[in-house]
Design brief:
By secondary structure, the chain is mostly beta strands. The chain has a single domain (13-344), classed as Methylamine Dehydrogenase, Chain H (7 Propeller), CATH 2.130.10. The protein has no helices and 30 strands. The chain has strands at 13-18, 23-28, 34-39, 44-50, 55-60, 65-66, 69-70, 76-81, 86-92, 102-105, 110-115, 124-129, 134-140, 146-151, 157-162, 167-172, 177-183, 190-192, 198-202, 217-222, 227-233, 238-243, 248-257, 266-276, 282-290, 292-297, 303-308, 313-318, 323-329, 338-344. The strands form eight sheets. Strands 3-2-1-30 form a four-stranded antiparallel sheet, with no helix packed on it. Strands 4-5-8-9 form a four-stranded antiparallel sheet, with no helix packed on it. Strand 2 and strand 3 form a beta hairpin.
Length: 348
């Protein structure tokens, strides 16, 4: 008899950012009921849970707006206790600004935070000690706006995707240096497999582009040769990419039609597209909310969570049956809404 996808999840929690809330809301992973929320600084974006310190990190990127249209860059990371749902500390990275992407090396106690460039330095990645919660280094990525960042499970290699630069930055985490630039025509979300292979959404969202863009898809980058070895085609431009513990590659496709009154266009339901990361074959597709922006999954790889920033919802999907189990409504004051996600297992 097939086990229920909810089995064994009592006490687990899903954390969800509302960018305009501005809040982080917590939902019981077994019942989908909201169990609390925390008000935080304006414009929270991404989340990362550190199970060793049992803390939740949240980036606040801008004072208002988003990457291509904002009123100025923020400099803070908010550290949250997910059990008491209280703010532990606000870490100021100034003069670094525009923090967005988060990647955790749990074994070494290091958190990598992508930051945007300025007149006197390129964009890069700030290295934070998760025990002291203080910056201890910086790695230049030689691009103005590294937005998403991911590392291989061994903590050896990191990839930064760049909306405005025609390459993906590859960094050696041990030496703290940029080692390669992989030619990619602008890029969005990414995920990295155990062997160092990176799966990168490209090109960047054509809604923002002034010129014709190449066909959308997932560029597969070989970490050993720092080169694109394959492309997984998709019907629409992709924003988030996520790799589950069971080897399924999840991509969030954005569907839009032109709208003269909105730079984001007129939104149609987005699409979750699932591939087998090993064979690179498509396994299935499912309609989700408007403008899927972040994807995560449960530790066992059974459930996917897709946050949709325009509809401000989170779709909960059973990846074995490709059925939607629930749709969570995330409070917002205005657009944009639901953004960053983190799955938090219950305390041992």
């Amino acid at each position: 008899m097939q086990q229920s996808p909810r089995a064994g999840r009592a006490g687990d929690v899903l954390a969800v950012v509302s960018q305009s809330g501005p809040t982080v809301s917590f939902f019981d992973a077994a019942s989908d009921q909201q169990v609390g929320s925390v008000e935080i600084l304006a414009e929270p974006h991404e989340l990362c849970f550190d199970p060793t310190q049992r803390l939740l990190w949240c980036t606040t990127s801008y004072h208002a707006g988003y990457y291509h249209a904002n009123s100025g860059r923020r400099t803070e990371l908010t550290v949250i206790d997910p059990d008491t749902r209280r703010i532990v500390e606000v870490v100021d990275l100034a003069p670094e600004h525009g923090p967005h992407g988060l990647a955790l090396d749990e074994a070494r106690g290091l958190l990598y935070v992508s930051v945007e460039g300025s007149a006197d330095r390129p964009g890069g990645v700030v290295v934070v000690d998760t025990r002291t919660r203080r910056p201890i280094g910086r790695i230049d990525t030689d691009a103005p706006g590294p937005h998403w960042f991911a590392i291989d499970p061994a903590g050896r290699i990191g990839y930064a995707t760049n909306k405005e630069a025609p390459f993906v930055s590859v960094v050696d985490l041990g030496r703290g240096i940029l080692t390669a630039k992989v030619e990619v025509p602008g890029s969005e979300g990414l995920a990295v497999a155990a062997d160092g292979t990176a799966f990168v959404a490209s090109p960047y969202n054509s809604t923002y582009a002034d010129t014709e863009q190449p066909p959308p898809g997932i560029r597969v980058i070989d970490g050993r040769t720092a080169s694109v070895i394959d492309t997984l085609p998709t019907d629409n431009v992709i924003m988030p990419v996520h790799l589950t513990s069971t080897g399924k590659l999840l991509a969030g496709e954005v569907r839009t039609t032109p709208d003269p009154e909105s730079r984001l266009g007129r939104q149609a339901p987005g699409q979750l597209t699932v591939f087998d990361a090993a064979t690179r074959k498509q396994l299935g597709q499912l309609d989700v909310g408007l403008f899927p922006l972040t994807i995560t999954s449960s530790p066992d790889g059974r459930l996917a969570y897709v946050s949709n920033v325009v509809s401000s919802t989170v779709d909960v999907v059973d990846l074995e049956t490709m059925q939607r189990l629930a749709c969570l409504d995330i409070p917002k004051l205005a657009e944009p809404g639901a953004h960053g996600l983190a799955y938090i297992p219950r305390p041992a």
